[in-house]
Design brief:
This protein has 205 residues and is α+β, with helices and mostly antiparallel strands. It is 44% helix and 14% strand. A four-stranded antiparallel sheet has the order 1-2-4-3, with helices on both faces. The protein is globular, with a radius of gyration of 19 Å.
Length: 205
């Protein structure tokens, strides 16, 4: 017997058709992103950014850089999910609240700062990988949060990241990783597509 969370995960499917006349409240958008930020990040850097594109004008503008896909304008909101290149100097700021709350020991900040510097400083590919990884964790958690609210979602890779970065004047360290459509699914969407058998993808050693 599957528990409710596992059952929800196994029944989730990517939404292709949205009800374009249904909006999502700002409070719901806040709730989704708040849930997304519970996802893990290395050194608790929380190196991500979520840009919620909600207005009709902004969605039409975004659609030009997203292969003219209907989902961009039909979904209630499109999140531009960005990873941020990890900055070891941010470890202090990110960890101090947890140290003050008694969750982490006092000496952890200096040791994690040194570790993050050694891991990322002067390693641009590793830094980029970490930014993409963090954004993906956040987006995946947001997808599950949306599913739990009865909303459909669509992770999208069909977009021009450079043009979006220029248009929104994103920082140099911001990397647009994916678009994530969220909204109310139409009834004619497909069920989850058949997955590969475990024997093809799992090795236990």
């Amino acid at each position: 017997m599957l528990n409710d969370t596992i059952q929800m995960i196994k029944e989730r499917s990517t939404t292709h058709f949205y009800q374009p006349d249904k909006e999502l409240s700002v409070s719901k958008i806040n709730e989704l992103v708040d849930a997304a930020t519970s996802a893990p990040t290395a050194f608790n850097l929380q190196n991500w950014k979520f840009i919620a594109v909600q207005s009709s004008h902004a969605k039409m503008k975004l659609r030009k850089f997203a292969w003219n896909q209907d989902k961009v304008t039909d979904a209630s909101v499109i999140f531009i999910v960005c990873g941020v290149l990890p900055d070891y100097q941010a470890v202090d700021e990110r960890l101090t609240p947890s140290v003050k709350a008694g969750i982490l020991p006092d000496d952890i900040i200096s040791s994690w700062t040194d570790a993050a510097k050694n891991l990322y400083f002067d390693f641009p590919q590793r830094s980029r990988d970490e930014a993409v990884r963090s954004a993906t964790f956040g987006a995946s958690t947001l997808i599950l949060a949306a599913t739990s609210m009865g909303l459909g979602s669509t992770p999208m890779i069909g977009f021009d990241a450079d043009k979006i970065k220029t248009e929104l004047e994103l920082a140099e360290d911001d990397i647009p990783v994916m678009l994530l459509a969220v909204g109310y699914a139409k009834a004619e969407n497909w069920s989850q597509k058949i997955r590969r058998p475990l024997n093809d993808i799992l090795e236990i050693i």
